[in-house]
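thought: user wants a sequence for this fold. calling inverse folding tool.
action: design(structure=
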């Protein structure tokens, strides 16, 4: 690693449409932290050499903060940002509540993001159709949660909401339309999308997802 050129500012190696990169950008915006975005273009090998020098997997998001390089595990990146920039807090103060929030972050990733990834890959039409149905049904099954609190099981915006914001913004490209019985979910999504930090987090490619909507 000694031959790697060190960046003097925090840098996020970013894919403008990747939902995990989007989560990191939402957290950065919530914290009011400016990070340089180094856009990765796998097809044209743009910035890939620098990325592989930092991260042997060549994956995004990858975050550098002077000598520190974080990659592969999204929770490591966003929890580092939470500890490095504690205000405003995106995790509860008390250990039990923090543990529950972390567990919910895992479940959102395991249950919902895993289905989103199948749809976005689009490799198997039957698998895509099945994942689309399962994701919609699963979201509708917890609509009452979005009606009981302004944010996900909380009165405060947390890291769970960062993840859900990235997911819900992508529903149009996932081919999912929330029916009338999911109005609580739609109101929740609208609250997330109107946050100044969320609007600041969007890339031009992501804005195009909902242009004219």
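)
observation: tool returned 213 residues.
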């Amino acid at each position: 690693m000694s031959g790697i050129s060190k960046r003097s500012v925090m840098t996020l190696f970013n894919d403008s449409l990747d939902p995990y990169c989007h989560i990191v950008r939402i957290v950065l915006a919530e914290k009011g932290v400016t990070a340089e975005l180094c856009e990765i273009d796998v097809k044209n090998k743009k910035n890939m050499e620098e990325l592989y020098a930092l991260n042997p997997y060549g994956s995004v998001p990858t975050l550098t903060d002077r000598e520190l390089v974080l990659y592969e595990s999204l929770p490591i990146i966003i929890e580092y940002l939470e500890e490095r920039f504690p205000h405003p807090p995106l995790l509860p103060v008390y250990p039990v509540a923090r543990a529950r929030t972390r567990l919910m972050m895992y479940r959102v990733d395991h249950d919902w993001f895993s289905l989103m990834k199948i749809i976005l890959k689009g490799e198997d039409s039957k698998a895509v159709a099945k994942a689309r149905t399962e994701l919609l049904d699963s979201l509708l099954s917890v609509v009452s949660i979005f009606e009981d609190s302004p944010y996900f099981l909380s009165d405060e915006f947390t890291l769970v909401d960062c993840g859900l914001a990235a997911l819900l913004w992508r529903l149009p490209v996932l081919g999912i339309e929330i029916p009338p019985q999911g109005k609580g979910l739609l109101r929740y999504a609208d609250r997330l999308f109107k946050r100044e930090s969320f609007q600041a987090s969007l890339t031009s490619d992501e804005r195009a997802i909902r242009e004219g909507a």
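thought: summarizing for user.
answer: Here is the designed sequence. The longest strand covers residues 11-14.
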